[in-house]
Amino acid sequence: MGAGSWGTIFAKILADADTPVTMWARREEVARSVNEEHRNREYFPDLVLPQGVRATTDAHVALSDADLVVFAIPSQSLRTNLPEWRRHFVAKSDQGPGTTLLSLMKGVELGTLKRMSEVIVEISGLPADQVAIVTGPNLAPEIAMEQPTASVVACTDHARAVAVQEAVTTSYFRPYTDTDVIGCELGGAIKNVIALAYGMASGLGLGDNTKATLITRGLAEATRLGVHLGADAATFAGLAGLGDLVATCSSPLSRNHTFGKQLGLGRDLAQAQAITKQTAEGVKSCRSIRGLAASVGVEMPICEQIERVCYEGVSPKQVVAELMARQTKPEKELAQV
Ligand SMILES: NC(=O)C1=CN([C@@H]2O[C@H](COP(=O)(O)OP(=O)(O)OC[C@H]3O[C@@H](n4cnc5c(N)ncnc54)[C@H](OP(=O)(O)O)[C@@H]3O)[C@@H](O)[C@H]2O)C=CC1
Ligand SMILES: O=C(CO)COP(=O)(O)O
Predicted ipTM? Predict the structure, then answer.
């Protein structure tokens, strides 16, 4: 469900793993180009998609016979789409192991402060054991070129994670399994905010010491929140944590990195959005992640400052100064974890 950057490339992964796939596209022209030319002209005009990828704008056609339903739309739009989609897949969900609902989305919902798998459980009415996520260092344009990468399939039901793993393993995409859905999902959402910070540092002309500091302290605050919310700290040292954080922060292919860089160069939110075009989840998730942290009394200084840049008009230069002026403390905050 979603035929943008990641939806399209994930469809290619499924088809290359011999799993037939029907992509739901919001626009007719996108579905037509996939069916008639085996290309997604809007997102990857030069990429020929496997024959096994079909597309439709009809949610019923995409969903009614699916064993695996994959969500690849912007996080903040899931709640408005899911009630309509739900009626097409719930009927099949009580047969056999039941439909697996798979989230590729990396965000936290504004207002409810829910992770995407929580929104899916709430609206679908299906048990959490039927909801899985895929996350990791997975920049779609690199995977489009079949550059090798690893990823994580997380589900509280290990057997279901293994089934999804089998459905998406190819010569260029190597998924591992995990049962820590909370940690994997938070790792994916928080790294987008840290990538905004890293991009800002690039835009400001700051060097590798600054960037390494952002990655390391960004990981510290992601781990801190995760552990408070029931995640395993080790998850953050893995693909869904450090792996995705490094890939997204350091890559000019990342929309969050690019967006942050524009802010660092002095552009405002609207100008950065116009340049980035595609979804940069961190811009909205900085607010919900900060809300989530506040709800459990966890400090997330970098996320907090990114929110101030995005929504309070504070300059990137000013937030760097404020981060550096914070009270000094031990590096390992075991007492707080
Ligand atoms: N791109 C990547 O490398 C990766 C992305 N992700 C995550 O995957 C999710 C999707 O990202 P990505 O595919 O990159 O985003 P894109 O912006 O490339 O594509 C978004 C897709 O969702 C559709 N869409 C946009 N708004 C709505 C809406 N309100 N209702 C229904 N459909 C909508 C778009 O349709 P239209 O074309 O008509 O606008 C498009 O098909 C995000 O959470 C992202 O963080 C995770 C890993 C890698
Ligand atoms: O999640 C991603 C890579 O794993 C994609 O990052 P961006 O959304 O910043 O492009």
Answer: 0.99
